[in-house]
């Protein structure tokens, strides 16, 4: 066997074996690699709104009505949601986006909409990114996304901001 | 003219200040009451008896927490859309395999809205411990599940000894599990 062929075979085996080595070392460290998500990072920073800011807005809005849409889990919405918010379906699923689309379709494109989820840490949330993207595609010009760094419980409920429970 | 203008504005200023003070009072009062609406207890059952539940597991078998009395139970709330949950669950499955002879038991509670997707993930991850679909009532009894992952450690006597919210280093959980397993 020529040395070139041996080198090529060794390289091929190394390519095949490398994912196994990564998994093995992750397992040895007691922590598996997390699945990729991070869809929330697709939202421009300028379109984010902080919890304190939204709480202030809720208590100071004039005639203009905010439309607050929760685009995460129904079960979490039933436990607690921002006062006045509506459930609009999980943004990570096609059915959820359909629900959001049908809710938004008849609205004026200048409606001030706040999206939020808070199911998981911000960098892991699979819902807000696709929901924001859909509203952008539909032509909405005033959409903000609530930045919940950890989750809805820690970053909204525990701060004592206004919530409701139930449907 | 300046003092005259200021005097002319004074009543409006006072009116605004009073209105703001009144509004602030209303806001404070509303926040105090809205922080705990009915059905959403704010107390977690830490260092209390773990709320018992009986649910039909995703495998169709009855899953009753009190049926595991005498074991150290890791109660993990998860969902299919929760990436950190999916990182933890295979680790919990490995512990289940390794530590079951020492009296360790993992129980999963899916916070998904439908059982089918939860069942698919359980099969895909080949989880070796029981899981069931949770609901808002069960979540409320555990202090609210308003962010995932959420894990409780329950000792052999049914007492909740630890609560881990969000992404947690599994080694931290593991060392606490080992400490509880070492207890009589």
The CATH topology of the largest domain in chain A is given as Oxidized Rhodanese, domain 1
CATH class of the largest domain in chain B: Alpha Beta
- Tally of discrete structural domains of chain A: 2
CATH first level of the largest domain in chain A: Alpha Beta
* End-to-end separation of chain B: 85 Å
Low-confidence stretches of chain B: 1-41
The major β-sheet of chain B equals: 5 strands, mixed
| Helix amount of chain B | 40-55%
Q: Most extensive chain contact?
A: A-B, 42 and 43 residues
CATH superfamily of the largest domain in chain A: Rhodanese-like domain
Question: DSSP helix count of chain A?
Answer: 6
Main beta-sheet annotation of chain A: 5 strands, parallel
Given the C-alpha coordinates, what overall shape of chain A results?
Answer: globular
**Straight-line distance between termini of chain A:** 72 Å
Mean pLDDT over the full residue set of chain A = 82
Order of helices and strands of chain B: HEEEHEHEHEEH
CATH level-3 fold name of the largest domain in chain B: Glutaredoxin
Regarding quaternary structure, what we see is heterodimer
| Number of E-type strands of chain B | 7
What topology does this entry show?
The complex is a heterodimer of chains A (167) and B (184).
Chain A: H1 3-28, E1 48-49, H2 51-60, E2 67-70, H3 74-79, E3 81-82, E4 86-87, H4 94-104, E5 113-116, H5 128-137, E6 143-146, H6 152-155, E7 163-164
Parallel strand pairs in A: 1-6, 2-4, 2-5, 5-6
Antiparallel strand pairs in A: 3-7
Chain B: H1 2-34, E1 54-56, E2 62-64, E3 72-78, H2 83-99, E4 104-110, H3 115-124, E5 131-133, H4 136-141, E6 150-154, E7 160-165, H5 170-182
């Amino acid at each position: 066997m020529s040395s070139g062929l041996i080198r090529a075979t060794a390289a091929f085996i190394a390519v095949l074996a490398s994912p196994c080595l990564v998994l093995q070392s992750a397992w040895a460290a007691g922590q598996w690699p997390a699945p990729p998500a991070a869809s929330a990072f697709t939202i421009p920073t300028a379109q984010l709104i902080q919890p304190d800011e939204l709480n202030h807005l809720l208590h100071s809005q004039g005639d203009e009505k905010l439309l607050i849409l929760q685009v995460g889990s129904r079960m979490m919405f039933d436990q607690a949601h921002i006062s006045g918010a509506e459930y609009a379906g999980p943004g990570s699923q096609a059915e959820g986006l359909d629900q959001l689309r049908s809710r938004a379709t008849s609205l004026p494109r200048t409606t001030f909409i706040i999206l939020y989820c808070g199911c998981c840490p911000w960098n892991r949330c699979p819902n807000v990114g696709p929901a924001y993207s859909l509203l952008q595609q539909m032509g909405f010009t005033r959409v903000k996304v609530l930045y919940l760094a950890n989750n809805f419980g820690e970053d909204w409920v525990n701060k004592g901001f206004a919530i409701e429970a139930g449907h | 003219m300046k003092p005259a203008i200021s005097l002319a504005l004074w009543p409006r200023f006072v009116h605004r200040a009073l209105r703001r003070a009144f509004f602030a009072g209303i806001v404070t009062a509303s926040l105090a009451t809205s922080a705990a609406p009915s059905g959403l207890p704010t107390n977690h059952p830490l260092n209390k008896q773990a709320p018992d539940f009986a649910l039909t597991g995703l495998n169709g078998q009855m899953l009753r927490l009190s049926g595991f009395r005498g074991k150290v139970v890791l109660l993990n709330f998860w969902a299919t859309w929760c990436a950190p949950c999916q990182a933890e669950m295979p680790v919990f499955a490995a512990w289940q395999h390794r530590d079951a002879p020492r009296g360790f038991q993992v129980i999963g509670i899916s916070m998904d809205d439908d059982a089918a997707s939860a069942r698919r993930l359980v099969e895909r991850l080949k989880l070796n411990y029981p899981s069931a679909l949770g609901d808002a009532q069960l979540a409320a009894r555990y202090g609210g599940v308003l962010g995932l992952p959420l894990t409780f450690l329950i000792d052999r006597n049914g007492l909740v000894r630890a609560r881990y919210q969000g992404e947690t280093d599994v080694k931290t959980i593991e060392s606490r599990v080992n400490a509880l397993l070492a207890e009589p």
